[in-house]
Amino acid sequence: MQFKVLIRGGGDLATGVAWRLYRCGMQIIVLEIPSPLVIRRKVAFASAVFEGEVEVEGVKAKLADSPQWERDFIPVAIDPEGKYISSLHPQIIVDGIMAKRNLGTYKGMAELVIALGPGFTAGKDVDIVIETQRGHLLGRVIKTGSALPNTGIPCEIGGFSRERAIYSPISGVFKTVREIGDKVSQGDLVGMVEDTEIKAKINGVIRGLIYPGSRVAKDTKIADIDPRGESFYAFTISDKALAIAGGVLEAILSFYKEKH
User: Fold this and answer.
1) DSSP SS3 for 17
2) CA dist 122 → 96, 116, 232 (Å)
3) Which residues pair with 197 in a beta bridge?
4) C-alpha–C-alpha distance, residues 36 and 107, integer Å
5) Which pLDDT score is estimated for 1?
6) pTM of this prediction?
7) Which of 257, 13, 20 has its CA nearest to residue 130?
8) Rounded distance, CA 113 to CA 107, Å?
């Protein structure tokens, strides 16, 4: 059966889902907002909004004004309201916006509606929820109830948690001469919001960095530093994203196995 899956959101976790489902032979379309504040741009199909075409681990995504189901690449369309959904007739919708709340996805939008993370109740808002919090339950398929609540604390990597994430101290336009994959030391300049310097709090590799020229609000996450120091990690889909993708794949296959 050729599944047609529409994914709302093209950040790194949603991209992990899109990548795995595409590799399994499904047709994928991604819907995004006009200026996504995506951090892990090198592993996010949302970057097609800025660059027109991107490739993540061998899978291409292209910005499309009028998205159609394709086999050779993943179309990415700017459509925060989901206006294309009714004309595309997807069998499956995955909400991967990761807003920690429901921004308009509902049960009945497609034959199967799946949501990633907190903000949804399986069996009420959507059909299935996938756990996104690191730990023993990561990637679990939830058919009744909700995912664990958002802690607001970045997951620990290499012994660091809050220190990894860099947030904007003010509102304004973000500027930088750094690139994802650059090595930095504690105190190094990462970028600026207006005239305010943003510096690294730990040693490591820049794993994520929002698109230069983006306008951000105060406390917006603008960068992520990986203390493990491996540039390779910045350009490959994370274990977390692939675990979540595995949960989505299980949810889809088990749903249609039970249905038929």
Assistant:
1) helix
2) 15, 11, 36
3) 192
4) 25
5) 64
6) 0.95
7) 13
8) 6
In the sheet that 165-167 helps form, which strands lie side by side, from edge to edge? 165-167, 221-226, 204-209, 183-184
Both tokens assigned to 114? 């799946």
CA separation for the pair 22, 97 (Å, rounded): 18
Low-confidence ranges of the chain (pLDDT < 50): none
CATH topology of domain 4-148+238-259: Rossmann fold (3.40.50)
* Domain boundaries of the chain, sorted by first residue: 4-148+238-259, 162-227
Report in angstroms the alpha-carbon separations of 120 from 18, 126, 138, 147: 20, 7, 16, 8
Q: From the options 3.30.190.20, 2.102.10.10, 2.60.40.10, 2.40.50.100, give the CATH code of 162-227.
A: 2.40.50.100
Q: Phi and psi at residue 7, in whole multiples of 5°?
A: -115, 120
Tokens 């993540």 label which residue? 56
